[in-house]
Amino acid sequence: MHFRLLCRFLWLWPYLFCLEALTIHKVQYDTKILIKTIVTRINDISHTSISSKQRITGLDFIPGLHPVLTLSGMDQVLAIYQQILTSLPSGSVTQIYNDLDNLRDLLHMLASFKSCPFPRARGLKTLEDLDGILETSPYSVEVMVLSRLKGSLQDMLQEMDFSPEC
Question: Which listed site, 6, 20, 118, 160, has its alpha carbon 20 to 30 Å from 75?
């Protein structure tokens, strides 16, 4: 009796192992697709393109000038962008905000598959500098934020091909 049960389990073992590998692959695939979708949404917002390396005084806290190589780093960057997007006066970024939230959930799923313990990242403690700049030039800030977000997302997309670390 025990021998037959053991044989059945051993026979199913390779299938169970493949099932988990496919799940990780599926989550990585979904993550890539969502990143591409967000980049497309940013492209669809009609702004003149500016370089993500261009600087506006007081916006140095906005990430995007250096690639992020870890899952926890990606989550932190996305949390900051979510916080910034809620401060923008334009209503055209609401869907991007929601997509970033879904992307963060996918990153957490990837982290759990890799047994990476990291808490949900928080945004910046204060955005006082952003409020002052938004009063004087809201359009320029939105263009800069979306440009840097797009650059960060493209870096993350490339990193997904290499299965990022915790």
Answer: 20
Residue type, 125: K
Phi-psi region of 58 (alpha: psi -120 to 50; beta: other; left: phi over 0): left
Write out the two tokens for 118. Answer: 């990291």
Q: Is the pLDDT of residue 99 over 80?
A: yes
pLDDT of 73-98, one tens digit each? Answer: 899 899 989 988 988 887 889 999 99
Residue 37, pLDDT score: 96
- Which of 73, 61, 76 is closest to 129 using CA atoms? 61
Count of CB atoms situated within 10 Å of the CB of 141 = 23
Residue type, 55: R
Q: Which amino acid is at 105?
A: D
150, 47 contact by CB (below 8 A): no
Q: Which of 159, 133, 12, 136 is nearest to 62 (CA)?
A: 133
Q: Using an 8 Å Cβ cutoff, are 24 and 115 in contact?
A: no
For the four alpha carbons of 144, 146, 147 and 152, in that order, the dihedral sign comes to: positive
> Of 106 and 60, which is predicted with more confidence?
106
Its pTM stands at 0.77
Least Cα distance to 109 among 18, 44, 20 occurs for 20
